[in-house]
Every structure is written in structure tokens, then in C-alpha cells.
Fold these 3 entries.
Entry 1:
Amino acid sequence: MLEKLQQQPPDKILSLMQTFKEDTRSDKLDLGIGVYKNENGQTPIINAVKKAEKILWEQEITKSYTKLSGDLDFQNVMKELIFSNCVPEDRISSAHTPGGTGAIRQAFELTRLASPTSRIWVSNPTWPNHISILKFLNIPFSEYVYFDKNTRELNFEGMIDSLKSANPGDIVLLHGCCHNPTGANLSNNQWEELQRFIVNNQLVPLIDLAYQGFGDGLDEDVYGVRLLAKKCKEFVLAASCSKNFGIYRERTGILFTISENKKIKNISSSTLAFLNRQNFSFPPDHGGKLVTLILKNEELRSSWVNELDEMRQNMLNIRRTLAAELKRLSQSNRFDFLEKHRGMFSLIGATKDQVAIMRNKHAIYMIDDSRINIAGINKHTLPKLAKAIVDVGI
């Protein structure tokens, strides 16, 4: 049996990480992996998380299994954080998952179970694992226009025009905020126009929310999410706590479904629990407990919000400074898009050859599509990056 297996293509980001580790140059810069880094190049543990871990260590009395759908308190605090009572409780179902990736996988499984002939529409480009999982599950999908490679900004008109090919009942996969990999987001007006289009064309939104709080703020980043949740007959959302709580290795995510018909809630809830059982049975509990402690404790929540704001402001400052330095070096405004983008990532528009030159000549590592991790830059490495970008002629 095993000899019949075929070699699978390596994950591009993980392969890049390994190549970076093997590079002996002291001034090398990793802009590939999507983790937040401080000025010292470290991914810190948020203070509120450290305090919550101490509380949990002192209070936890069992390591027995949790429920199939996870801890109810975790589901409730995440519901409040994301939706803020914009949707009646009796319309919402949820289940704790192993990270945001686990939530996305469960969401795809759910759509295949509920509507096997529906097509999932994904942005071009999107997070590569979206397409990888869809292909693995053999779920039909198509791409919609999203990013203008010339302006490095959202092509909203092209997005709407390409989604006109979707059939009623098809699913539209959207990034809730801080689009990965482009960094180009919808404005509030564009969210409103998209919401009307989705409702009028009887489409189902599936939101990937991985960066709430990393763009413009905790509430600002879910404007479109809450709008679609209120207005659409059906709605699915996969959320991650990895980035905004800094608990990457705890694998903490959640999947929500919302239906216009409250009678469906029990069926949806039991289906989410069933899917958990088929894939991993009980979700990991530690990260969910930390998030719950933080969001339910006024002091811890305030501390977390302040530190999250500091991370967000740091990324915005890096964007402004990098755009300004590139304007100075290039004597042009062609990099102004960096200041407009939001979140951890931006596509800078380099070719694969230019990315290779950046890596070989300048020891700067990024994915072949030229996605850079803004959160991996600091005031010490920014001048080196700006000089290299101009040097290779981007």
C-alpha cells in the first residue's frame, strides 16, 4: 500500500522557512511566515495571556474531554467579540475547532454535506491553503477577480462582475478583514454593495476572519462581517485566535453558522458537533480557556485590547514609514499602496525572478508571489528592505 503513495508538493511557506534557517548570513530577513514580531524579531506572548495561563493553572481541576462542540463559554465570548449582538442568539450555531485552518476545513466539509453541487468562489489571489483544502476535498471552486496587480489595490468592479457568473446557492469565500495575501480591503461602502449583490443573487457568504483587530480596530474590522450576518439568509464564518491573541501554537479557532430560520439552529449545532466527531472528536481546550478568561475578565480584557492596539499601530507605522522611504528612494509614489493596505501582509508586485534576487543578493526572504509580512519588519530592517526593493526594480 505505502509504496503506491506519491510525493506531495511541499508547503511553500514551510519550505521557505527551512531555507531561511539554513542561510548563514547574519543580516538575513524573514518576511515569509505570518507571525507578529516585535522590535527584537521575537514573537512575544501577550501579557494578558501569561496572566490567564497562571489563573488557569491555579483553577483548572480536570483534563477530561470537553464537549464535541467545545466549551460553551468560549463560544459565547467569541460570539460577543465578533457579532456584538447584531444577530439574535436563536439563529447562531457554533463549534470550537483546532485553529482557524480547522474552522475553514470544517466549513468546507459543512458546505459539501449541505449542498454538494454548490461551487465555492475564492478571491484571486487568496490564502493558498484555501485552494489546497478545496482540491483535497474535491469541492468544485472558481476564482473571482480581486486584486489589480498594476495598482496593487482592490479591483471591486472586477470582483462584482466576475461573481455574476455564480449560481444561486453558490458560496462566496471572503476575507473578513486584512486580506491575505494582498492587504487590500473592502471599504464600508463596498461591503454594503457586496451585501446587496449577495442577497439579490441568493449567494451564501463564507467568511475567513483571521485578523480581527489587526486592521483598523476590533469593531471596525468586522463591519462587513456584521452587515452580512444581519442581512443574509444564511451565513458561515470561520475565525482564528492565533494572531490577535498571539496563541499560534494553541490552535484555537471557531466555526459559526447563522440561518434566517431559527428552527434550523438545533440541526446546524448537531451537524457541527458531528463534523468535529468525524475529524478530530474533541477540540483542544487550552487556548479556548485562555481566550475565555481574557474576554470575561475586565482587567485582562483591557490589557489585551491595549496590547493589540499597540501591535496594530506598530504595523500601521511600519506601513507609513516604508511607503515614505520607498517614495524617497524611488522618487515616485508607486508604493503608496503600502500605506493603504491593512493587516500583516501586502503583495508588493515583484516577479518570481525579483523575489529570487531579493533572497540571493539581499538575504530577504518572501514567498514567490511577493507577499511580505509587514509585522516581520522593524525600524532596523526597514531601510535594508526599502533599498533592496528599489535595487531589484520593483
Entry 2:
Amino acid sequence: MKMSPSFRRALLVVLLALVVAGVLGWSFWPRPVPVETAEVTRGPVAVEVSDNGRTRVREIYRLSAPVAGRLLRVEVHAGDQVVGGRTRVAELQPVPPSFLDVRTRAQAAAAVAAAQAAQTLAAAEVRRQRAQLEFAAADYHRSLALARIDGISRADLDRAKLGHETARAALASAEAALKVKQSDLAAARALLIDPGNAGNPAGRDSIPLVAPVSGCVLRVASESETALPAGAPILEVGDPRKIEVVAELVSEDAVKVHPGDRATITDWGGPKPLAARVRRVEPSGFTKISALGIEEQRVNVLLDPAGAAASWAPLADGFRVIVHIVVWSHPDAIRVPVAALFRHGRGWAAFVLRDRRAVRTVVSVGRANDEVAEVLAGLRPGDRVIVHPSDRVRDGVRVSTEAAARE
């Protein structure tokens, strides 16, 4: 039977409508959401606090200048071995006098002239008192001769003796005053000594400085000859084998750390982490400005090497390391990746894969680190959970792990 043109047009429109409807239906048909999954496992879980640290020699002895002076060139260098009380490490000479300006030199010259005049006056007083003593001595001897023949009274003899003793004491006082004036003149002349006329040959009047303890020279503050004030550091000595690690933890992390906690040292330059153990958490904190300009309260935590001494041998004083301190651990806990957890109300939840659908499950979580969290309830070992769920993943939605793997 032959179709009429109008019938064929109607049939074509119907077929076209069916094709469009099929395409639209296929386009809007819900498809499985591609997801990535991970397995809930059982194993050890450890919680750590980590921060930068540095190594340092446990006992450092700093040699300082005992008095102000000129330090001669230090002949020892960092790394040299020294013997305590025997190895001479430096030599200190007295500081030469400074140059005088015109006013100070004129004042010093006037002081010398005054001291010379005072010395001349004191010398004249000594000569006068010596003459008085000679006269008093002669008078006393005459009085003694007359007293033997009863030529004078006892009172006159006592007065002659008193005059003689008084003259002797006056001469001693005048001689002492002369010595004082002579010392004043020497002190005044010393103010006029120029640096070039001080005269201090090498080795004369110098102070030898020896190593305080046996060990290794860690650092030398100044190797060249220089003038130092009293108390200025010269060098440091210590034993590099007796080393410790100092970690400056923020106070929120420091309260979780206790002496005896085990730790590992990483990023120190070697192939394997080093074992360490916390020795002390200092009881006082300090303020430190972070790289972002934020004030932080920091606490020093001291750690001792716990592994073989040979593994710590490459480290020395002042090396940078990363410290990981274990503050909690469980040897056999149910673990879930933290990437699978999300907030649900006031607690936590995860999407569990069941029959190719995402099932939202409330999870009770204990301790957690950067990778896994301890599961207290809600999940069992072997469950598959969706990690990094997107906003398309909802409770009951169909999911596909194969599509995620292809992508």
C-alpha cells in the first residue's frame, strides 16, 4: 500500500520526536558518581608533634678575656683538639696607653710640675727634721752626762728624751711624706707616656690563656690580633660526641610531651631517621616571632640520642634537623584515612561503599595524625570508605570506582 505524503511526513516527525526524547532521556539519566575508595584496616597508630630542631654540644665552655687587653693572633682553629689546663690557645697583652690631646697633655704637664714642687718641699722638710733630730740627740746625750753627776733634775732629763723621740718621729713622718710625693710625681709622669714609648715586647707582661677543658675547639670568635674588653668571648671548647637536640615547640604541643617519650630525627642529611628520647621539657617558655610576624610562646624540649653512637657521628654543634616526638600510640587500632572523614553535626561521619552506593555512616573517632585516625565505633576492618568525597556524593547515591580509575 502506498503511503500518502502527509502520512510519511507525520511518521517522520514521530520518529524524530522519539529520537530526541531518547537522547534527552539518556542525557538526564542519573549516572554513577566516580569516587576513590580506601580500606579500613587494623594496625599501629601513633600521634606525633613535629617541629624544627637543632643540635648542640651538651656542655660548652667559653673562654673569655679576664681583663681588658690586646689579644695576639689565635693559633688554634675550629676542629683542633686541646687538652684542658695544658694547651695554650691564646695570649693577652696589656692595653697600651691612648694618645693625649693638647688640653689633656697640658694638664698632665702641669700635674708633673706640681708634683715636682711638692717633692722638693717634702725633701726640704726631711732635711729640716733631720737637723732637728741631730740637735735633739746631742741635747739628750748632754743631759745623760749631767744626770750621771746629778747636774740636772730628773724632769729636765725626761724633757730632753721626749724632744729626741719627737724629733725622730717627725723625721720618719717627713720621709714618708717624701715617698708619697715621689709616687705622686711618678703617677703624674705616667700620664705623659705615649703609646709608642710604652715598651711592651712580645711575651713580656702578657697573660697566657689555656684551654678550660679537654675537647675540640668549636668556634673562634676572633682569630686576628685585636683589642678586647674584659669578658669578651675568645673561643668555645666542647666535646662533639656529647650532643643533644633542642626543639622549640609551641606551648600547645609542649604540654603533650613528657620526659622519656621516644622520638625520631629526620631531614638531617642521612639516609635513615635517627632514634632519640626526650630528656627534659624546660619549665619556662619564651616569646618568638614566627616567619609570618606572629608572636608565639615556645618551649625548649631537650632530646638525647637513643640509637647507635656511630649513626650520630656526622652531626655536630648547630646542625638543623626535624624532630618528631610520639605523644600517643596504639599497637593495634582500627584505622581509617582522615581523608574519608567529614563533619556531621557535632561528630564525624564517612561514606561507606555498600552495593555500589554511598552509605553515610556516623563514626566515633579517637586520636588522629596527618594520615589515619583511630576508629572507636561505626566502622570495621575491611570496610571500603570514600576518600575526598565531593559535593556530588550523598547518602544513597550510586558510585563507581572504575570510572574514577579511568579518569
Entry 3:
Amino acid sequence: MRRTPVEYSRGLSDAVGAPVWLKLESMQLTGSFKIRGALFRISKLTAEERREGVITCSAGNHGLAVAYAARQAGVRATVCVPRSVDGAKLEGMVALGASVRISEFDGYDDTEEWSREIAAAERLTFISAFDDYAIMAANGGTVAMEAIDDVAEARTFVLPVGGGGLSAGFASHAKARLADSIIIGCQHVLSPALRMSFEAGRAITRLPAAKTLAGGIEGGIGALAFAVLQSRIDRVALVSEDEILEGVRWMAANHQYLIEPTAAVTIAATLTGKIGELTKPAVVVVSGRNVSAGTLKTILCRS
């Protein structure tokens, strides 16, 4: 995998009144941070599991990463995706040699349930996109290690939260290393599993499908991931679809980077001030870049 760069953002710094850097996981192999967890998790397969093959469920980026890592390891991979999956991600998984199965569902949660049934019936090892300690450690923990090393003065970290794999690993390492760090989780207002889990005092692992172009932050949160996050998240910021799409446009206009809607949730939360007041330097994680030409056209035309 690549050690992704950090880049100072004058625009976000001016918006929040504190220094802000971008951690550009959008420049990672396969276009997102997910390759970190996929490589590590597949490296831990037993000989029998390697022979039988693996299966996973993904809104796109995890599937790309598993397809890539499985091909590198010589392991057969099946990826189950919602029928709403972004076209660029679907094509990428197929090109990497994965067997892709498209569910009859729009949402992630229903698709995962279906994929776990296939895993049991076909005796395949299921690799969770987020609710696995190896995935959390690699996806989030290694990103945190790099970000803290590269921006030593940072004490606030702004993270996207879907199932919780990135945020749980990141928060675990950051809180252990920097006792005064502040962790802010960002979610779609139509799929606020983290906020709902805090209110309920338990993980909300399933939610109705939300219509969004930010498929990576749609659905419930992992039970293992929430157990990690419950004592480590300081704030939760919720943003709308329009704010997320404006985040995509803002990144293109101000940093000349193409990012996907899921990744723009942190940009949107920062631009709108929904992350709250910042008094210390911050790192904003930009999680991925995989977006089809058709989706990009939709975003730009909404401007």
C-alpha cells in the first residue's frame, strides 16, 4: 500500500479558524483506504480458507480492495454489492478478477444479510467491510499512525463513519497515543447510525436504505466497531446530501482533486461548521476517489 500524503488546506483553515490538513486516502491503491484492511485480513487466512475462497459485501471500495488483495494472494473472491452500486466501482471489481453478484436491494444492510447466506451455503470465508478487528486495525489504525506522524501538532481528527471500520481503528490508536485528541465522526443525516447508537446505548446495526450517492456511509454500524467508538468519539456531525455534493465540488475547485461523495462527508461537515468549534490543528480524512463519470456529471449538474 501507499503512505498517502497530507496537504494543508488554506480554504478549510480559513473556514474554521484553525490549521487544517487533508489526509488524502483518495490517493491510495484501489482509490481508498480499504486496501489496508483487505491486504491485512487476507494475509491472516488459513490454508483451508485460501483454498475455499472468500466472499464479502461492499458498497464498492471494500469490494475493490478485496478483489485486489485476493488477486495478489491467489485467492478466489466473490463480492456482493447493492444494485445501487456506483458503476465505476462495479467495473473495477470485475476488472480485478472478482466474481461480482448484484443483489436485489438498494441498501447495504439487506445486501450483507444476503451475502452471509451465500457464504454459509457455499462454505466461503466472509470478510466484513468493517466489523472485524483486523480490518479496523489496518484500515483505521495505520491511517492514524501516518496522520499523527506527519502532522505532529494535530489534536483534532475528522473522520467519515459508515460501518465504523476506519473510525474505530483510527480512534483507538489516536486516543491511546494522544490523550488530548478530539475525534469527530461524520455521517449522512439520512443514515445516522452512530448518533442513533449513542442515543440507544447499543449498536444500531441495521437501518432502512437511504437514497444517496454516498453509499459508503449508508446503513448500520458494526457492533464490534461501536464498542470501540462508544468511549472514543467526542462529537458526531450530520450533513445532508446537498452538503455532501457541494463538498465534492469544493474539493475540485479548491484542491483540484476528484473525490467520491462518501469521502466528501468530512469536507461538508467542516465547511458547514457542523464539526463544532476547533481550537487545535486538525486532520480531515478524505477516504476515497472512486466515482463514475455518470455520477460526477450528476453532481456537477446539480451545482
